[in-house]
Amino acid sequence: MTVILYIAMGIALLTTVIALTRLNAIHALLYLITSLLAIAVVFFLLGAHFAAALEVIIYAGAIMVLFVFTVMMLNLGPPAIEQERRWFVPGMWAGPGIFLLMLLGEIIYLVYNLRGIETSGTGGSPSEVGVSLYTTYLLGIEISSMLLLAGVVGAYHLGRRAILPVAEEPTRPLLLTEGRKS
Description:
By secondary structure, the protein is mainly alpha-helical. The chain has two domains: about 1-125, NADH-ubiquinone/plastoquinone oxidoreductase chain 6, subunit NuoJ (Four Helix Bundle (Hemerythrin (Met), subunit A), Up-down Bundle); about 125-160. It is built from eight helices and no strands. The longest helix has 26 residues, at about 50-75. The relative contact order is 0.10.
């Protein structure tokens, strides 16, 4: 099982580095989702089954959907639609697809050999995890919540459209002969 752990850790590290170096936000998100799934496999192998489930449900699911929604919100207008059509080529899925297939193979292997896995941790129940998060790690939770709030405010300011005032007709001074009726 150590080999599978090292493969999952390598995939997580490599896809995170690739996600950080991509210029296209959608490509970076695909690699980041792959990285989060690999981290879930690492948690599972280390005995933290609850943390692995939370990693998949919360991070790879909900937060990535929020990121994708934000990226979609920022790409407004017909030029952005045409640019997305040019970007959406099958080759874009090759890198994340290979890593996801490797992770899928690991997960299938783990499911069929679940009885033989020796985990190094006890994992803990969800209530123990919650008590630990909000007592021992309270400062980290608060800092994370502030970072998420700053991200939401930043996304709002980047995504909103400026409302321009309606242009008025230019005014010209009246000539003396136009203002009087004889």
